[in-house]
Amino acid sequence: MQRNMRFHRRCQSFSPVLLFIGVSWALLVEVPQDSLNGTVGQSVLLSVTYKLQEPFHPPLAIQWNFSNTTNVLVTYTGTNFSVSAEGIPICHSGYVFIHPSYQGRIIFFPENASLLLQNLRLIDGGVYTVNFKLLKKTRDIALTVSAPHFNNGNPESSDPTEDNNLAIPGHPVTYIAGGCFTLLFLLLLLLCCTRCRGPES
Fold first, then answer.
1. How many other C-beta atoms lie within 10 A of the C-beta of residue 176?
2. Which class for 23: exposed (0-12), middle (13-18), buried (19 or more C-beta within 10 A)?
3. Is-contact 96 111, C-beta < 8 A?
4. How far, in Å, CA of 4 to CA of 80, rounded?
5. Which of 5, 49, 141, 165 lies 20 to 30 Å (CA to CA) from residue 67?
């Protein structure tokens, strides 16, 4: 009798481990690019795909977090799913919450867990983490945001030197140099005229 009770307790102790293994195999998450570049004012897609495998039981909870803030950017709770033979969600229903500070700048796609960031700012650079909470799976995407670059209408060179500036038509330096040469020429002409009139007088 005591042996049976011990065996029963051991089976109970193993059951959470088996349940965790079953849950971890119920989801496959992929991130095509874990490092992205963006430009201020533009948009960037943090692309994610996931597949659900049997056995899987709703709800499905997904969160997006950002390394530069403690606020949760997006929370999605899916309660009803239809899955294709490949495990891709084709029909779903649930609730999406977007943090107020990101309203109008974030679009979340429940069918693949991707996140679209719009109207990028420099402070948006950092690490974004998608977290499948109940299934204990996370993936990170690093985003670098840079300011738009203006090269003063010269697409071939972003840092023209002083010599190059002199050769640009319409550049202020060109006008200054031309004026100096003109003034010098007039002074020389006036000097010549003065010397020529001197002996006659």
1. 10
2. middle
3. no
4. 41
5. 49
Determine the Cα–Cα distance for residues 105 and 173; give it in Å rounded to an integer.
44
Query: Pairing relation of β-strands 114-117 and 44-46?
Result: antiparallel
The first and second tokens of residue 93, run together, are 């229903």
- Each residue's pLDDT tens digit, 68-85: 888 899 999 988 777 777
Place of tokens 């999406």: 96
Query: What amino acid occupies position 4?
Result: N
Split at pLDDT 50, 70, 90, the class of 60 is confident
**Which residue in the block uniquely carries the two structure tokens 């060179």?**
157
- Contact residues for 2 (Cβ-Cβ < 8 A; gap 6+): none
80, β-bridge pairs? 93
pLDDT mean over 4-23? 37
Which pLDDT belongs to residue 200?
A: 52
- Cα→Cα distances 181→22, 138, 156, 167, 168, Å: 86, 70, 30, 16, 18
